[in-house]
Model the fold of this input.
Amino acid sequence: MLRFILRRLLLLIPVIVGLTIIMFGIARLLPGDPVALAAGPNATQAEIAALAVEYGLDQPIWVQYANYVSGLARGDLGTSLLTRRPVAADIAAYLPATLELVFAAMFIAVAVGIPLGLVTAVWRNRWPDYLAQVGAIGAISMPRFFLGLLLQLCFAMWLMWLPLGGRLPIVVIPPRFVTGFLTIDSLIAGNWNAFFMSLRHLALPAIAMSLSPLATIMRMMRSSTIEVMQQDYVMTARALGLPSRKIITKYVARNAVSATLTVIGLYFGWLLGGTVLVETVFDWPGLGLYATKAIVSQDMMPVIGVALVIGLLFVFANLVIDLLYGVINPKVRYS
Amino acid sequence: MTTTEHNIADDPGTPRRDRLRRALFRFSQSRLSLLGAAIVAVVIFFTVFGTVLAPYPDQVAGSVDTASRFLAPSAAHPFGTNELGQDVLSLVMAGTTVSVLAGFGVVLIGSAIGTLVGAVAGFSRGWVDEVLMRLTDLTLTIPGLILAMAIAAALGSGFGNMVIAIALSWWPGYARLVRGEVLAAREEVYVTAARALGATPKRILFRHILPNVVSPIIVKMSLDMGFAILTVAGLGFIGIGVRPPTPEWGTLLSISRSYMPDYWWTAMAPGMAMFLAVFGFNLLGDGLRDILDPKARR
Done:
């Protein structure tokens, strides 16, 4: 098991090298002059040149790349031209917000999607099932940013039940940084006001993010449940006179979930990269918003950094999922 | 698929028209697929004629009418007017052309690149396969939207650049699909037969193998069409992509954000158009998968 994990972690190295080469290639394509953009409209030619020297952007691309990779080994992701701060520090500040959003969305998707998938499989080809199937295609077709906008309009602007955006109101002092998840940090600090405030801010963006994975998880769970229900051991359990409810919860659900896990792992990565639009709608200070601002001002270092971090998290999430298979299904062995 | 089924399906005695009729019958049995086909037909109709049929064609071209800013929905303007006094319905109708054509372009270019990469990888195997597939896996780990945004920003704004940018983040799925299909197909008897007849590898790949693996590619293309439209709109929403006054759904929605909640109607038509178009393509894609790719049917 340990060897399995180590081997998978070693495989990350070519991923890092490949990702940085691709993103550097794109950076080279840039027709504009990011240095001039960052220096501002009133900067003189000499100031722009000085800034380029300061950030090493006057060097040939392969020298820049070599510098970047050697910095990477020390945990240095370069410096943002826009914020003038180290990219690693920026990402450390923005990543928890994105992760909190993704985990919350994933929680909703799993907590609702798996039971719904089970129920629709048990009731398959009856009207609740049809309704859920059409609803699922509708949910997948709904643009997240339009859904976010509708939720904002309904719950924040008309009903005024929930806040419009952001993570906390300015008047609320954020809890001490422990995990970076405001909900968890405020619980640790015992600050109930901040906890409820951050939960209220989290609700709408998390719902907007969760709808599409919820539908996919439901469909996946439905089809794997139907498959499991046709297995011999389910028939045996039925023949033994076990109550339906017990067969479903104890035997069918557990086996059906393991097939659904793969989807959950893939969706985790997809959500990490897909927060961009929802973060823009809800002004959520996460990686997506950070990357968008950087892209618009052609500031490539943060973009490379964000792509790298999300890519690594994606690979890591899939490793965790592979390990979870072993927990749920003892037949899976690692060698 | 068992051998018997295979033989029946490919029985030279069964005319092609008969098979098509059977597929059409199966398709028509699913009400949802028919609904999808109907929505897609409407969407394609507006893609072609949207700009011509728009009630206020001059406003589609960019003319403004400041006297009638932010009019609520009425008989003259079923979806109201926007901050420039333009008829929202006209803009959304004309926007269909940009959004759907861009989505189509993305799927077409993405599938072409992916099919080429996957076919070459699966057919040649060895180190070529290894290199191409590692590149594919790498591109898959980069979040698609961020990659597309970065390329789009690098290429500059405009319709063509946006389509190319998204397509360049879209091909890996096809590469993996086609490689798997080609790997399976190259062991088939007809490939051995073609080789025995002295066909060149290029001919075997493009004339014999690819036509036989085209069904799953078409299914994936139809399922991807909706998501491609969504991605195009997403890029427009962020402000990378087509620039106003060219009407595009994502851009229209993004502009309307500033006028919420008082002028909420400016958001409804572009948002609902996006949803309906994607919904239609997804329903149709599901239906096509059921008839073209029976293995994937659940």
